[in-house]
């Protein structure tokens, strides 16, 4: 494979981490984008779950439409996600998307959006690498990010225990930070919000996310989507610690963060 482009993000992210150094290369319809400050130029095997299974480095698989593999490599833990379709389109093709240029591929867009947010100090995983494989008029894609240590999806936490009001307010304040930065999340739900053991809030899965001019219409729609998600989990069988007062705390925390 040969290098076709190299770019450095010169600004530190403000949280004591080395700045992301974006590099990309292409060969025979395979395009790879990676953070040279985090890993060396990755081989194709870096994106293959079977490779990590053979190396006995596969630590687990997170379930869901975009099932993610967790693996260890050189004392770091990574999350590998293969892009998969949902809904009725999955019946036509489970992982192929229409090609309209490399910059428009889902992995490329999400990697760059994550890199921008990470360097702004927003609570997201650090993007590590993306792979796009072209198949004629279509493509398939993968994304690798650093694994956030000790995190649990909000939905799983609420099945186990209730949250303190301060934690709900923190969730609302975190969402407001993204909105204030003009970040639109296409699927803000109770599985894409993570909590660590110290109560810090993270947001993941920015597939189809985008930068937008801050506007109350899409911001309120984002909040409403999360509210519906929590309500759906509440309707499922078994305990789920979410009540109306909890949502009021989310809104209170959201409103407490300045829009400026």
Tertiary shape? globular
Cα Rg: 19 Å
- Give the fraction of residues assigned to helices: 25-40%
The major β-sheet equals:
9 strands, antiparallel
User: How many helices in DSSP terms?
Assistant: 6
Q: What's the rounded overall pLDDT mean? A: 90
User: Unreliable stretches, pLDDT < 50, 5 or more residues?
Assistant: 1-16
Describe, in plain words, how this protein is organized in 3D.
- By secondary structure, the protein is α+β, with helices and mostly antiparallel strands.
- The protein folds into two domains: 2-146, no CATH class; 152-256, Transferase(Phosphotransferase) domain 1 (Transferase(Phosphotransferase), domain 1), CATH 1.10.510.
- Helix content is 30%, strand content 26%.
- The protein contains six helices and 14 strands.
- The chain has helices spanning 49-54, 106-120, 154-160, 165-180, 216-235, 244-256; strands at residues 2-6, 22-27, 30-35, 58-62, 68-73, 76-82, 97-98, 127-135, 138-146, 152-153, 183-184, 193-195, 201-203, 210-211.
- The strands form three sheets. Strands 1, 2, 3, 4, 5, 6, 7, 8 and 9 form a nine-stranded antiparallel sheet that branches. A three-stranded antiparallel sheet has the order 10-12-13.
- β2 (22-27) and β3 (30-35) form a beta hairpin.
- α4 (165-180) packs across α6 (244-256).
- The chain is globular, with a radius of gyration of 19 Å.
- The chain starts with a strand and ends with a helix.
- Mean pLDDT is 90; it is low at 1-16.
């Amino acid at each position: 494979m040969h290098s076709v482009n190299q770019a450095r993000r010169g600004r530190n992210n403000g949280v004591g981490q080395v700045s992301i150094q974006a590099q990309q290369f292409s060969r025979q319809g395979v395009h790879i984008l990676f953070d040279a400050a985090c890993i060396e130029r990755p081989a194709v095997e870096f994106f293959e779950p079977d490779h990590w299974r053979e190396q006995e480095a596969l630590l687990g698989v997170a379930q869901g439409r975009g099932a993610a593999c967790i693996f260890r490599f050189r004392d770091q833990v990574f999350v590998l996600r293969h892009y998969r379709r949902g809904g009725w389109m999955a019946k036509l093709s489970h992982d192929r998307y229409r090609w309209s240029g490399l910059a428009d591929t889902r992995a490329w867009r999400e990697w760059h959006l994550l890199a921008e947010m990470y360097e702004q100090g927003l609570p997201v995983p650090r993007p590590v690498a993306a792979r796009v494989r072209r198949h004629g008029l279509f493509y398939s894609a993968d994304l690798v990010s650093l694994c956030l240590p000790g995190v649990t999806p909000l939905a799983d936490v609420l099945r186990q225990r209730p949250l303190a009001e301060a934690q709900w307010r923190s969730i609302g304040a975190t969402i407001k930070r993204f909105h204030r930065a003009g970040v639109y999340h296409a699927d803000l739900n109770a599985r894409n919000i993570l909590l660590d053991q110290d109560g810090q809030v993270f947001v993941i899965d920015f597939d189809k996310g985008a930068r937008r001019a801050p506007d109350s219409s899409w911001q309120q729609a984002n909040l409403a989507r999360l509210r519906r998600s929590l309500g759906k989990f509440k309707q499922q069988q078994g305990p789920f610690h979410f009540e109306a007062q909890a949502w009021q705390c989310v809104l209170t925390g959201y409103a407490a963060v300045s829009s400026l």
